[in-house]
Amino acid sequence: MQHSFILMSLLCLGTGHPTGADKEPNAPRATTQQGPIRGISTDQYVNAFLGIPYAQPPVDSLRFMAPQPLATMSPAIDHPVRNATAFGPVCYQFHYNSVMGNALTETSGQSEDCLTLNVFVPKRRPCKQNKPMPVFVWSFGGAFGEGGGSMPMFNPTNFVARNKDIIVVTWNYRTTLFGFPNSPALDQQNLGIRDQRVALEWVRDNIAGFGGDPNHIVLGGQSSGADSGNAMLYTHKDDPIAIGAVFQSGTVQIIGASTSNQDSEFVRAANSVGCADPANRNRELECMRRTNADILHHAISNNTLNAFGAPPGGSPMVDNETLFTLQEYDARGRAGRFAKIPTLIGSLDDEGEAIVNWSKECGINKTTAANITPMLQCNVALESRYRHLNQVPTWRYRYRGIFPGVTPYKWLGSYHESDVAILLGSFDSIAHTDKSSPITAAASQYLQQVVATFIRNPTSGLSHVYKWPVYNPGENTLVQLFTNNTIGATLTSPMKFDTICNNLPPMSWEAVGAPAPVC
């Protein structure tokens, strides 16, 4: 009986280790279909397994190809333990001039060989919950031009430590020209979205080896990460893998994908590196595959801008496989031709303020930012309406907080992406802010509790715990978070904010690239 008690205690604390020779016997271990791996303890509450490959390296002949799955190793063979103790390089990318500074700068370098993910596991679990843990997969934003797991703001250690019973997975996916090449010679486009689906499949097939429940995965993301997740729910409506979704400031409708690649970034980049071949696009593609990756990366410049007025050097396009036209999404949304899983979805008051160009001294063009803001908010309203029409349990929120721990400049409001550090608890990574702000910490704790409640029970957790009603655009069911920096939520009519959606201000994405004001 005493032996059983000791074993159960070890399991509850998450400190049990495999037997056998090991250079680091106290390091956390996990089993994957590619063999055992060794992680690290990030603090007293969390074990992390970092830089785990989920697909073959997309290099050489696999450059500009859809992600290829990894081979499965035989469990009957004693495979060596591989280290998963450091973030893998992020995919080649541009860095925007972000108000968050180094919080959005990778700590692991950039590479073409970048298809890895990271698993953050609670170290000490309540014994009463000694069962497979729910899994939250969170995908970064960055307009398909930047982002990656090693960026400090995207580190979910605080979220995992606080909740103790939820595993969080983050990943890299191909961005810029490497992830969205749009070559006329390619049969498969939008590789960065395809990467995310393969990564999600890897999580489903391997998360049990980390203590996770493969049948309880919630898919989350912010901005283009939410766009991608939403897109996958339309593409894989009968096999979404996830049982719930958390979308922050993003839906598939905001992507604005091109329907033509005849003058794509790929064609322009090919011209700049000497590979252009309008008469033979296949030959052009092969030349681009042979070109050094660093040369391709640096070929992306102001001459290869995409329609967002910023330089990702590659942008999503309609391929009728991973992305469809807006008209098709409207038809599918109204008819319910998407995965009908419970959804928590929302936007911020001042989305446009972190999207337009800015200067430290003079701030932003507030009019331009205000005109861009509804473009993000109204697509969230539209996607929420589709879910209501099809009786999908949905909770829609409006984030209104302006907290000192995530607000580096006084001219900023509740700007695009400011909720990410609040959710993940990573606000210490943002420079020029009040990191000791009690209200910032309180807001983070509250938002984490809300999202964790949804993750544990996507179907009705928010209604049971917080008494939030399921979203109905005709009733007071829009959840306002942090109004006037008050910790908590209030309910209001969606029409308080959505009236503008009937008459959007004139604005194009090219305005994003307009110069910052001069003072």
From TrEMBL:
UniProt xrefs under SUPFAM superfamilies: alpha/beta-Hydrolases
Gene Ontology terms for molecular function: carboxylic ester hydrolase activity
Gene3D superfamilies registered for this protein in UniProt: alpha/beta hydrolase
UniProt signal peptide: 1-21
InterPro entries: AB_hydrolase_fold, AChE-related_enzymes, CarbesteraseB, Carboxylesterase_B_AS, Carboxylesterase_B_CS
This enzyme's EC code(s): 3.1.1.-
Pfam families recorded: COesterase
Keyword tags: Hydrolase, Signal
Domain Carboxylesterase type B: start-end pairs: 28-357
Annotated family: Belongs to the type-B carboxylesterase/lipase family.
Alphabetical list of PANTHER family matching this protein: ACETYLCHOLINESTERASE, CARBOXYLIC ESTER HYDROLASE
Protein name, per record: Carboxylic ester hydrolase
